[in-house]
Amino acid sequence: MHDHLQFCLTQATNGPAPDGLADWCRRWRRLAAEHHDPVGLALRGGFAADRVGWAFAAGYQSALRQLIQVNGGAVGDHELLAMCATEEGGNRPRNIGTVIREDAGVVTVSGEKSWTTLGSACTGLLVVGRVESPDGERPALKIAKVATDTAGVTLREKPPLDFVPEVPHVAAVFQDAVAETVLPGDGYSHFVKPFRTVEDTFIALAVQAWLLREARARQWPTRFLEDLVASLSGLEALAGAPADSPVTHLALAGALARTNHLYEQADQLWAEQGDATGDRWRRDRVLFQVASKPRALRAQRAWERLRA
């Protein structure tokens, strides 16, 4: 972490910006080939961005790598992945209708997912599905990794969001699509349930690394830079903490509250700039309010667990 944060504090801030999604993907692969630590990837990927959208993408990819590594898996340097959990009714176990089947050693996936971040740019999709038990017990949830160019995979582009429109989203349909592998562990408790915690942490890391670059480039107050460094150091510590721990959830709630205070300070600093980057910041600011209610509920439940 120290080396990556020092990089963000000393590296030149006038590097070339990504020229669209394809260029960002190429740059991400080069970065992933050089750095295998998810925290370092989030920081360096965020620093290399010229807008919240690309920082978000770096944080999202880093979060998935962290989650897979914690559960004993590995991600290739060239891979760009997306979590495919949400269906029409949501992403809880009762909402999952997608089915993962194994026959003669071949695993196939059939079903529909309504929301997949970065889907069209990805090489692989982490598909949450039900595995029927031969003895009639309750079906288990697993995650099958399916290449996006596999026969039986159809991606349907969704209209760009009003914020971070550079990041594509798709609906995904699987018709007996052959999976590359099935990830170890329970698909819900090991992946879907902790992912929001991991994602919140890593996106905050990446966005604040980008903000640190912008603050340095614009010679914003030293105190603001120091507050960013302190926040990034705290988030780094949380990135390695158990994602299912109530203590982690409470610490993250505090860290995100501090993050929101930093963003409020940035609002005022951007208001004094009057440039295109500031305009994009104001447009993309809505991103940080997405899923605010589930975050509040996560902290509430953490307190309940500790007080039980």
Protein model, in words:
The chain has 308 residues and is an alpha+beta fold. It has 2 domains: 2-68 and 190-307, no CATH class; 81-183, Butyryl-CoA Dehydrogenase, subunit A, domain 2. The protein has 9 helices and 8 strands. The strands form 2 sheets. A 4-stranded mixed beta sheet has the order 1-4-5-8, with helices on one face. A 4-stranded antiparallel beta sheet has the order 2-3-7-6, with no helix packed on it. A hairpin with a 2-residue loop joins strand 2 and strand 3. It is globular, with a radius of gyration of 20 Å. The mean pLDDT is 94.
Please indicate the percent range of residues in DSSP E strands (runs of 2 or more): 15-25%
Counting DSSP H or I runs of 4 or more residues, the number of helices is 9
What is the terminal separation in angstroms? 35 Å
Overall tally of structural domains: 2
Radius of gyration: 20 Å
> Biggest sheet: strands, sense, closure?
4 strands, mixed
Count of strand segments = 8
Query: Which percent range fits the helix content?
Result: 40-55%
Low-confidence stretches: none
Order of helices and strands: HHHHEEEEEEEEHHHHH
Shape: globular
**What's the average pLDDT?**
94
Show the helix and strand layout:
Elements: H1 2-10, H2 21-34, H3 38-47, H4 52-70, E1 81-84, E2 99-103, E3 106-117, E4 124-131, E5 140-147, E6 153-157, E7 169-178, E8 181-182, H5 188-217, H6 222-239, H7 246-271, H8 276-284, H9 292-307
Parallel strand pairs: 1-4
Antiparallel strand pairs: 2-3, 3-7, 4-5, 5-8, 6-7
Helix pairs in contact: 1-3, 3-4, 3-5, 4-5, 5-6, 5-7, 6-7, 7-9
